[in-house]
User: Fold these one by one.
Assistant:
Number 1:
Amino acid sequence: MLFKTIKKQDFFDVFLPDTQCIGPKKVGTNTNGKPIYQFLPFSSFDEIDLDYDTTEYSAKTYFLPYKETLSSFSFKDNDWTQEIKYRTRPRVIIGLHPCDINGLIKLDKVFEKTLFPNPYYITRRQNTFVVGIDCKEPCDGGFCSSVGANTVTHGFDLFLTDIGDRYFVKIGSDRAFNALQKIKTSEITKKDNEIYLQIRNKFEGSFEKTVHVENLPNLLDIEFESDVWRKWGEKCLSCGACAMVCPTCYCYGVTEHISMDFNKSDKIKQLYSCNLNDFAQVAGGHNFRPEPATRLKYRYYHQHRGFVESFGQPMCVGCNRCGRVCLAGINPTDVISDLQREQKR
Amino acid sequence: MKYLGIEPQKPKIAVFDFTGCEGCQLQLLNKEETLADFLSAVEIVCFREASSLCSDDYDIAIVEGAVSRNDEVKRLEKIRETAKVVVALGSCACFGGVNRLKNEFDLKAANKEVYGKDPKETINVRPVKDIIPVDIEIPGCPVSKAEVESLICHVVWDSPFQLPVYPVCVECKQRFTTCLFDIGQMCLGPITRAGCNAPCPAGGIGCWGCRGPAVEPNYKSFFAIVKEKGFSDIELKERLNFFGAFGEVNVS
């Protein structure tokens, strides 16, 4: 890894004015007076705030859109043609925290480094210049350090750490190295390293929420029939908000949309949630998971058991967006702690 | 053209208005970019907002509005006898709609309040399905034209017609809307059927439930949340009753 430092005010000169930029924008204030941020397109750097604590939504939608046309069919006479379009227009996303970049690394495993690579995802991922930035302090309920998602070593182009008047920069790609040629960068000094490590150590020691996930896949199997699922399931609204804001939930449904002149049809993919009522309903109408408690359980099983089996790590990055968005107060640290207490009893 | 061996139908459609504002009928004529195709996909034999002609020879009856008079009951029964498929269009037809608020009051007093010295014959407001069997319901105030188009595809091509089973929250999230509860407003989104694309919360107004309940909403948990957020039973009841879509759900 190459490290440099750059002056904060120089950093924004790296980007081309005609490339679409996405960053953390303040969109409002909640009832507790805290600012609400979202990753949104911006045209001027004073529209974004890189000191944001967390965003309401993850940046997932820029890689896995909530709705995406997979293919379009045109019918003519007794024949048909198919058209497939991939999004290739370059884009820059600035300000992703380590959790979100770790989320992308996990999605890479599912959609890129797999037997069946997904071209819709890959074209978006490869044409997106990712600039990450370290958090200044843990966000509300965030437990990224418990799932190893509080730091990141790859999966980005540039990664910044605020060290006062300058950024401590990790260069993660050739194109990032080239982009930095446009501005003045400085070599890392011994003092810079010290400041960087000091800031990071302080951050690592400031987590209030922790949860042990090491033996979680086995625990989940043992507690399959646990009352804990009923307890949280009774609260669950089955609204799917958790999966929508999650940086890694990628389950989806596909529907056919026929044009009103009946000459075209689109296959449209829509991100779905395993908590929604008909997620496990099959042809013929049988629903394998009719109760909210079962659906909630399987969300945790995919995140903390199934994904571990396939990829050796949990799917969850500990951002607690699901916990904050949940009106019913369901959050991973409480659910997992409940299960662990159950076992000790 | 045949598709998957299916011969397209050109069904005869009749549109009828009952107690309501006719806004849902207007929606049928909305969305100009596909209007010509929409109108040529079917044969409209009765639709007073589009044509003065009216015939009793139809396959599909689209019924807009609720029932609030005895003569409407008879008219509906006649429609059911004629039509192969009856579609209830909009919240009034599906649930009684805003008209149903009348049922909370003494009928005579309500009549006097509205018509003064010239009272009209009136009965308690009822949705279409209370009078005759309904084959397809498209809820909404007004209905979404996209769902109407999907219905047309269904009757022409026998393609599946299904309303989303999930609540409005999914659509809010998919368009980056900040949760209305986060900014101190009440919203029925978590228990209301999606399909509208959540325009009200996106415009800063909490959901009033015009599309009726999602499939198996968790009322108990939702009502507890609403109270915990500081809203009263009366506020909640008023909102649930507004479109009459939540029937006799007990808030306590």
Number 2:
Amino acid sequence: MTNLILAILDRLQFLFRAMGADYRQLRAIVQVKLMMDNRRSIISLGRSGKQSAEKTNSFTRILGIYVFVGGLISLGMLTRSARELMFFPLTLQFSYIMSLCAMTLISDYSAVILDSSDNQIILPRPVSSRTLWLARIVHITSYLFAIALSLSAVGVLVIGYRFGALAGLFFLALSLLSAVLMVFMTNVFYLILMRFISEEKLREIINYVQIVMAVLFYGGYQLLPRLMDSETMLTEALSHQWWHFAIPPMWMAGAVELVVMPVVDQTHLIYLLLALLMPVGGLWFMNRFLTLDFTQKLSSIDQESRPNQSEQPVGQTESSLVDRLSDWITTTPLERAAFSFTWRITGRDRKFKLKTYPQLGFGLAYVVVMSIQGQRLGNSGFFYLFALYFAGIYVMVAQYQLSISDNYRASWVYGSAPIQKPGDVLSGSLKALIIKLLTPFYILLASYILFRYGTNKAPDVVLAFFNSLIMLISAALLSTRHLPFSVAPDVVKRSNTARGLLIGIILGAVGFSHYGLRLIPYGVPGAIPIAMVLFWFLFRQYRRTGWPQIEME
Amino acid sequence: MTNDQPVIQLINIHKSYGDTPVLQGINLSVTAGQVVGYIGPNGAGKSTTLKILIGMLPDYTGEATVLGLDVRTHALDIKRRIGYVPENAALYDTLTPLEYLNFVGQLYDLDRSHIERKALDLLRIFQLADHANARMTTFSKGMRQKVLLISGLLHNPDVIFLDEPLSGLDANAVVLVKEIIRQLANSGKTIFYSSHIMDVVEKISDRIIIIAQGQIIADGTFAELQQQRPESLEQLFAQLTGSDGQTTVAEEFIQALNQ
């Protein structure tokens, strides 16, 4: 793919020259970046929450999935509607493309565009602000184009077949412009953010913004089309409202409709104008005004990493809460150390938070959306059970993340310290995870379930909680045991598939037995103590883990 | 450029990170062909000075010129003619040395085949020829440092800024790099480097500048500095930077351990 991208860039070099970049430098930077992406795993290119892809093959695999999913949408939407009813299906298609591009940008924007990790490598070289900025935009846009292309591939064929090659090509071009438009909008968003937030806090806050945006986008995308009355939208021509001009996917849809119909009236011309002008004009605007002090901004981001002498001591209240909790919950000093260690790192490690918290958010959003949406499914007798167990999967992702850290090299300390029972480290760290993440998550979920399906479901919720604990501990027992934060980010993935399969089987078995218990009088309340004992037993097993069972780097 | 014009000049440089002042009025001027050792305790502002000189930190007050050009307005022109080797072995380690050097060379608009030949030669001299096509993830700190040194010198710069250039190198490589620095200076290039290793600084510097808390507290040849206090540079450094009496501190440390 790298060669293809570079070949395309070579064709377009006059464009970059016109924009004021040094093309040879730009090409060198893009080439090196793509080369490195191929070699290391791509952190969360694709969907932010999903397991990060490994090597290009899995990026290709993600693209394959996008072709498939985008194809389904295109086949479902674009084939049925009559020529004059294409507007709404097209809007959906473009909003899907834009959502996925935005998701990718949100999770990767700060990693790619505001990356300060290579400040030491690139900033001392004679590379201008504009060249570096454009190189980074090209780098991330090449991924976005691949995503947009694969999402619209089938759509292009459908449109091309039904309405002629010209319409197909136009649809293709607008899909790519959608990606450019998303780059512009994310850029503006982050720049506004940077304006209002002091630079020291920026990185930390970007992290939270990413989490919130990821959840909002996901939830919004799932929810919006369902809230609208999609049947009437598909069967009746849409009367264009003024506020439609504020919705980017509608520009694209309107512009395509102009070619498809073909119709030339004021409304459609405005759509066409917006669809073409906004991305191109946005790009010009960014290049003209935002790149001037780009390298300066980059080097100032780096400054916060300097040790700050006047930094205030860590808040006393927080640490004493952790200490008191660990007093109650842990038994040995080693377990206690692992507990507070895990507690603190899970609260501070940006990567851990970015990979875990959005997942939990997705879990909740998914349950809520599912229960509102399909009326039949949402109201069926077992949906709330499904929801309770389904959400458990998301907690396991956190358990899986627990062993991963960028600072995995620091785990030498486990090796050099005289630790006799490494099981204590594992159990302390798992306890922290249960108390800090799993319990609050379950309380939220349980409140929603009890609110929606009635308080008489309380025993089910309690049993499901303990069953989830059992699944969590089984997952921990079944997978390779690593000490907390001791594994380099891309090593763990190897045993992933088999483990996922096993967990799936256990999940199914436990869920079905729970369903069966409901048919027996007092089955569910009766099973709670058994589940507790089983959990206690398994936990004790886990705690007995000895050195031979632990895999160190 | 005439010889008497300073190659590096700093006039009353102030710089702070947030509310923390880092540099508080640095004044210095270096002429061509000098090897300047820039030393000071951790956090004294050494790396900050270097970053200002190579145009990475434009928000300082005062005047900074390199090769007669203002750092703020001519950053790109300066960057083309200087070399910089950062301290913490920052390079793209998923690349091979050849790929990395090729990349860096392209940033200086050097001819591709030319870079490749030169890079291979330099790697061979540093005894990395066998590793020229291996990814640097497996490299030791010394090997990375060698690649880093080459990447900073590849475009044959007139002024060379080195931040802790000998870190991680084995004894033989240290001797080699010291000799390279000497010969570069003899051929008229200016070398400005910071280090913590006092006996190296003592031996290869034409001029030693000591800073502490963002201010220059000593400046001169080793002989000149010695005239003030006839001791080794290490002792001189300790006295000047106010960390005299390390023996008592060491005793304190041992006592705290024994508690």
Number 3:
Amino acid sequence: MAASLQSAAGFFVGSRPAEWSPLEEEVTALYDQHRGPLLRYLGSLRVSAADGEEIVQEVFLALFRHLRQNKSRANLRGWIFAVAHNLALKNRAARLRHAEVDAPGEYRDPGPDPEQLAAGNQRQARLLAVVRALPEQDRCCLSLRAEGFRYREIAQIVGISLGSVANALERSLSRLSRACPEGAERT
Amino acid sequence: MRERNPHLPNADLIRLADGECGPAESAQARAHLESCWKCRSRLQELESAIHDFMQAAPELPELPSPDPARAVFRARLSQLAAEAPPPRWNAFWRGVPALAAAAVAIATILITFGGTVNADGPKPRTSLTPGETRPVSLAEVCAVPEPDPEQDNETARQIPVEMQRQVFAAYGMDPAQAGAYEVDYLITPELGGAHTVRNLWPQPYSARWNARVKDRLEHRLHQLVCQGKVNLATAQHDIAKDWIGAYRKYVTPSSPR
């Protein structure tokens, strides 16, 4: 994927306009601001890093089209995450459909990182294992809450009810606190 | 006492801490918390789970360097910005009055093929073959080498006999006629076309607008899409809706000889 991104970049050399329109600048600023959080969120949806990068690009190209048509600017951050969420589900559906043919290796769960275990940070490793084992919807809600979204926004992004968001967060945090009780030694 | 002021379930504690309770509910919950160490201790445990998660979360994926991706993004964005918003095409087709060209193309098709554009003609029936796509990214499409129109690539995308049979059956064609037709993708897989019956149609070998001509269109569209001059969805739409019109639009306005 990295190679194809490089070669795609090659196509465009020479066709760059002299200056950027204000809308391009705005969308690029939003890209810079949200790329990291989006990649993190896509990671929680088990999208590979390369696919995540591609999805992030698609999201902001879609945002450009959206804004160019003078559509709603209300809660752009929520819009961005909602589009990323949908693209991630699509991406995974496509991967699953072609799984036997082209990418059987894409799905492996890395499991606890051996280096992390070796480094002695067992508490963190255990916690990450619990996060990985969460039902996907719960993990999505937890990640989005960690990104600072309110319940209503999370409900819209994931496409579930407000009550389901509260329940998902309750399940996730209860599990985390059970798996890593406070009294347990840190590091 | 307990009846009126029961312990708070975890979900309520979290909602309270997250500021997701209404004023009345939140006042009541806070009053309970003040009086109940048990609930406060549980809230503390939940807060500490949040703390632990936030400590660990940034390390979930290792973010690759932003620079190459950002450069690609800016290039793609500038390509997109250069394209006029749909349905206008003036950025790329500068100098070509698009509507007039489309009108001419349609008129030409009607005049030239008035008698042959029918069930067995060189265009698929929309109801049977609307054209279907599979979800695919631009990078994936462009990672595949362009279909070469000069090479016979039919063997590379053999369609299973059973699917071919379904297509002929759907079109109500006598299997005896089948030899004069090739079952072909409407939206070519190289442009993200799906491997489904609804993306397949019987294309006559003998027609002037034959599979070879369509291959040229597919080659051209793949180029334009990967150069960022035509957006993938537009290419898929145009070839599905009217591939002959698309040929005139993207390859050449003149008819193949």
